[in-house]
Design a protein that fits this description.
The protein is of the alpha/beta class and 341 residues long. It has a single domain, classed as Alpha-Beta Barrel (TIM Barrel), CATH 3.20.20. The chain is built from 17 helices and 9 strands. Helix 4 packs parallel to helix 7, helix 8 packs across helix 9 and helix 10 runs parallel beside helix 11. The longest helix is centred in the middle third of the chain and has 25 residues.
Length: 341
């Protein structure tokens, strides 16, 4: 089976020979090809070069367009400073009142330089490896994008004091997200990653009442456009992971704070899980043997629909041998655990 076939079979609950492996590479990949993280965020060819390089070097099953959370925000007109080795820093907020929400309009990727750039990166990666490897597009989820435009603290207050303001904004942001996702699917992405990180901060009641319905709407649209959905909510999601399974996502990323066996019990057998060993204490600071042991434990706990990756992004400075320890490449320490035969 090709890497793409392995991946799709695992997501669908079909027979496959090996556990798919899909590390989240961003800054690490940029450095691997001799560039800064700023280059990776702002130059679509650097992103594609870096993602293709690490996918080939470590035998990963998926190449990804993930880079930073500011693509849509840039399209809306926010401005940023991009330090050489950090995520872009916003110069202000776009939403400061309900009047600003009233001015929001859905974006088309072709009208935004940074959104169009990601679509072009997807198209290039798909042309090069899309027949053999999964191609992951990426968008911001409804609560994450609102927090990008409004501020995290203000977003939490709005969900309690002015939920209608969030709802008005979300109705527009979801249309933008779907436009962005659809463009990436047409460019060759088989899966759309949806980063909705702020959802881990709102608590289960507010998540189920105010965030989940908008995620469902977005994911239904992505499915209609022909894509799978990978929901990525960083942080401790143990109180909402069961509800996340009701979002319609095909894959749920589980960060390291949540025991994988606990997440599997919460979501049931019909959703693919991806995760979840600690990217800092294990992957960055551990030994190859410790990485292999943690990865093998994840495979044992993940169930049949499982994709192996660290709980979040591969950190800058991670030793290459630690990455090789869990990937299907030279230096792998868990070949027996990865391969079902």
């Amino acid at each position: 089976m090709t890497p793409k076939e392995q991946y799709l079979a695992a997501v669908r609950g079909e027979k496959h020979d090996r556990v798919p492996v899909t590390p989240i590479f961003m800054a690490w990949a940029a450095h691997y090809v001799g560039h800064t993280y700023r280059d990776f965020q702002l130059d679509g060819d650097v992103l594609a070069d870096a993602q293709l390089a690490v996918t080939r070097a470590f035998g990963a099953d998926q190449v990804s367009a993930i880079s930073d959370p500011w693509r849509e925000a840039s399209g809306y007109g926010m401005e940023f400073d991009y330090p050489p080795q950090g995520v872009g820093l916003p110069k202000g907020k776009l939403i400061t009142s309900g009047d600003d929400v009233a001015e929001l309009r859905p974006l088309e990727p072709s009208g935004s330089e940074r959104m169009a750039q990601r679509v072009a990166s997807v198209a290039r990666m798909s042309a090069e490896v899309g027949s053999t490897h999964s191609v992951l597009g990426w968008i911001e989820g409804p609560i994450a994008e609102y927090a990008d435009l409004r501020g995290v603290e203000e977003t939490m207050i709005d969900l309690i004091q002015a939920p209608d303001m969030f709802a008005r904004a979300a109705s527009v942001l979801v249309k933008t997200g779907l436009n962005f996702a659809t463009a990436q699917i047409k460019a060759g992405a088989d899966t759309i990653g949806v980063g909705d990180a702020a959802a881990s901060l709102v608590g289960p009641k507010l998540y189920a009442e105010h965030v989940l319905p908008w995620e469902r709407k977005l994911f239904e649209g992505i499915h209609e456009a022909g894509g799978l959905v990978k929901l990525h909510i960083c942080g401790d999601i143990r109180d909402i992971v069961g509800d996340m399974a009701r979002s319609g996502a095909d894959i749920i990323d589980v960060d390291w704070m949540v025991p994988l066996a606990e997440a599997r019990r919460a979501v049931g057998p019909d959703v693919a899980l991806a995760g979840n060993f600690d990217p800092v204490e294990v992957l960055l600071r551990g030994t190859p043997r410790q990485v292999g042991e943690a990865a093998a434990a994840n495979i044992a706990d993940g169930g049949e629909r499982f994709i192996l990756q660290p709980g979040c992004e591969v950190p800058q400075g991670t030793p290459e041998q630690n990455i090789r320890a869990f990937c299907p490449c030279e230096g792998c320490l868990i070949a027996d655990a990865l391969n079902f035969q």
